[in-house]
Specification:
Chain A is mainly α. Chain A is built from 15 helices and no strands. Chain B has 2 domains: 175 residues, Periplasmic binding protein-like II (D-Maltodextrin-Binding Protein, domain 2, 3-Layer(aba) Sandwich), CATH 3.40.190.10; 199 residues, D-Maltodextrin-Binding Protein, domain 2.
């Protein structure tokens, strides 16, 4: 690359812009981490330096919150939601792409339309259904409505377009049944698609707030998002404690993302190996 | 079906069964009273204390206090009531006073009327008014936001004012003092968040008026108290004796940092004021300034909430008896929550207890709780109506224009139009 003044100027602009964006997205995290080490009053005063209150904040968080139980609840809901959503929605995405029928596209479009209905509109009917089933205040009620995810079905169908039909034909010649083709051929081939979908579903389930808030009724069933919300809305919230809670709540999604980063990028690019 | 598939199926079935039992949560036991409220250090802790007291004399009744954020309690209550799913609701719920009429009027029959059971004459009248619909009283009055003028004795002394000079002020005198304080000490008189109409509400209620009249109709353009309140806040702004704050935390920072000479707000701020040990002895509390119009008083209120029993509750009788025994009669309980949590209840008889009678060294030995208790009984009753929050937004939208010289009547017309839009 020649270093003409125009090139240098554009490089400065590019890096300046990228740097600014990076700062904007990283700053809240820095602030959260610094906040966890400061007392609530220092946070209110806008102190932006590491403080000495970290141990106190952690101790207070652990006294106020039954941490093992809350994380256990969140983990339970998230793992069940993720596994079931991936299982159901990938089957649906596979089915939509592989099997032809007269009503396929109409059905598919109808399903995509459901993406446009805001959850707030579905909430009360859904709540009545769950109430009639006697599932209020259970984790089943939290997981159930998330399993059939139109977005994940859409995502799997799009990715399935890249799934070579020759593989399926060859498997059929070898005498595999449809479910065996799905389980032994499709799933391993679509690994990176699953990984990307896993991250998306995991994060959504872990951070899910409104629906768990509506169906969960007791301290024993609450997930981490509800607990942090309750801490943060006190008349005088202890922001140091809230920051500790937020950091702990961020760790699992962070870990999942870092472990599966490579597959996530591949999945997003839609590669099939 | 081949063996392979069968093995898989049974494994899947086993997994499904295991997960079902794994996810299930046992139902609540009989005689357990479930309560929803917010703030683990305040309402939740206080309700746990109340529950423990009741269980001592009624060992068969236990309590399950569930804490959610305030907006979350409202969201859940709204969904539960709207869906008509009774078992989705608690036995007792905490509702903020400003929102009480909205729930009581939107869901008639959803809350238990306590008129025959509770002796409401023992409570601050304005708290009872908040929960009255068509002559029936619902709910148990809880914490009060009775207001006071907290002022820095040291700053005011530098400006030449003694504590006696701070008693029974008018708002015009308050502004004059503020100008003196700034000239002599360089400190602003008061912290003000231009996006919060709290001060307007305080001043308006002190003269016995609200955004709505007793029938719930909008009371804006012809409301002398609202007009005077908006004018007063406008004067404070144009006299530039205020330190602007952006949001609640920033506003709290204006006085915890020592940047302003006074605070006008609800009694619940006392704990925050006292959380600065280096300011001990420097604060005093006086009645808030009054307007110079008919019906003006030195007593008002900001915030506060109350307990309500759900009509659908399976433990309705126990829940009502519990509230009546503890919140309606137990003077000692009110001493305990004042000492431990800084909570000022609305039961007037509570003032005769030891905690209320104690002098507070932080305020230079003043009997602040006795004073607040005096003012509590004098807070004028108003009807908070259904759209207080909407009216608040309309008021804050007009505050900047006022400082730039827009006539008050014009601002009131704009507020009225905005509120009328919500009521239809």
């Amino acid at each position: 690359m020649r270093t003409s003044p125009a090139n240098i100027a554009s490089a400065i602009l590019t890096y300046g812009f990228v740097g600014l964006m990076a700062f904007l997205s990283v700053f809240p995290f820095i602030w959260m981490a610094l906040g966890a080490t400061n007392s609530s009053i220092d946070i209110i005063k806008g102190r932006l330096a590491p403080g000495e209150a970290l141990a106190t904040n952690i101790a207070n968080f652990f006294t106020l919150v039954n941490v093992p139980l809350v994380f256990w609840n969140s983990a339970k809901v998230t793992i069940f939601a993720t596994v079931l959503t991936l299982a159901v929605s990938s089957l649906a995405g596979y089915g939509f792409e592989i099997f032809r029928s007269r009503h396929r596209e109409r059905l598919y479009r109808a399903m995509l339309l459901t993406l446009m209905i805001p959850f707030a509109a579905l909430m009360i009917p859904l709540f009545i259904m769950v109430g009639k089933m006697g599932l209020i205040n259970t984790h089943i009620a939290v997981v159930l409505p998330t399993i059939g995810s139109a977005f994940i079905v859409f995502y799997f169908r799009q990715s399935t377009k890249a799934f070579p039909s020759e593989l399926r034909d060859a498997a059929k010649v070898d005498g595999l049944k449809e479910w065996q083709i799905f389980l032994y051929i499709y799933v391993p081939v679509m690994r990176s698609t699953y990984a990307a979908a896993f991250i998306i579903v995991f994060m959504t389930a872990w951070n899910n707030y409104l629906w768990p808030l509506i169906v969960l009724q007791s301290n024993e069933t609450k997930t981490i998002t509800l607990v942090i919300s309750s801490l943060a809305s006190a008349y005088y919230p202890d922001y140091g404690v809230v920051m500790v809670g937020t950091i702990l709540a961020t760790l699992p999604t962070l870990a999942v993302f870092f472990f599966m980063q490579r597959q996530f990028v591949q999945g997003m690019l839609g590669s099939v190996k | 079906m081949d063996i392979f598939a069968r093995a898989h199926l049974s494994r899947i079935a086993a997994l499904a069964l295991a997960s079902a039992s794994f996810l299930a949560v046992t139902a609540a036991e009989a005689k357990e009273i479930t309560i929803w409220c917010w703030d683990p250090n305040f309402n939740v802790a206080i309700m746990k204390e109340a529950g423990a007291r009741y269980t001592k004399t009624h060992p068969d009744v236990t309590f399950n206090v569930v804490d959610f954020a305030k907006t979350d309690v409202e969201q859940k209550l709204q969904t539960g009531l709207a869906s008509g799913t009774a078992d989705a609701l608690p036995d007792i719920v905490l509702i903020e006073d400003y929102g009480a009429q909205k729930y009581l009027q939107s869901f008639p029959g959803a809350f238990a009327a306590l008129s025959g059971t509770v002796d409401y004459s023992g409570f601050a009248p304005y708290k009872v008014e908040v929960m009255t619909v068509d002559g029936q009283v619902y709910g148990m009055p809880f914490d009060s936001g009775v207001t006071g003028l907290y002022y820095r004795k040291d700053y005011l002394e530098q400006a030449g004012f003694k504590p006696e000079d701070m008693q029974n002020l008018t708002w015009d005198r308050f502004i004059e003092i503020g100008q003196q304080v700034e000239a002599k000490t360089g400190k602003k008189m008061i912290g003000l968040d231009p996006n919060d109409a709290g001060l307007v509400r305080i001043i308006m209620q002190s003269a016995g008026q609200w955004y709505f009249d007793k029938e719930g109709k909008a009371n804006i353009t012809g409301n002398p108290a609202l007009k005077a309140a908006v004018e007063t806040v406008g004067k404070i702004m144009s006299a530039n004796i205020y330190k602007p704050a952006n949001g609640w935390s920033d506003w709290v920072g204006t006085f915890t940092s020592g940047d302003v000479a006074s605070v006008v707000t609800g009694v619940w701020i006392t704990g925050t004021v006292k959380a600065q040990p280096d300011q001990a002895g420097k604060w005093g509390v006086a009645p808030i300034p009054a307007l110079s119009i008919e019906g003006a008083t030195h007593a008002s209120n900001l915030g506060g909430s109350s307990w309500y029993v759900l009509e659908s509750s399976a433990e309705k009788a126990e829940a009502i008896d519990f509230l009546n025994e503890i919140y309606g009669k137990d003077i000692d309980f009110y001493q305990k929550i004042l000492q431990d949590r800084g909570a000022v209840g609305s039961l007037l008889a509570a003032r005769s207890g030891a905690a209320y009678e104690a002098a507070d060294p932080f305020f230079g030995g003043e009997k602040v709780w006795q004073n607040f208790s005096d003012w509590l009984a004098k807070v004028p009753s108003v009807n908070y109506g259904i759209f207080t929050n909407e009216a608040d937004l309309a008021v804050t939208a007009q505050l900047p224009a006022l400082t730039q010289g827009t006539p008050v009547d014009e601002a009131l017309k704009a507020i009225d139009a905005e509120v009328a839009g919500h009521i239809q």
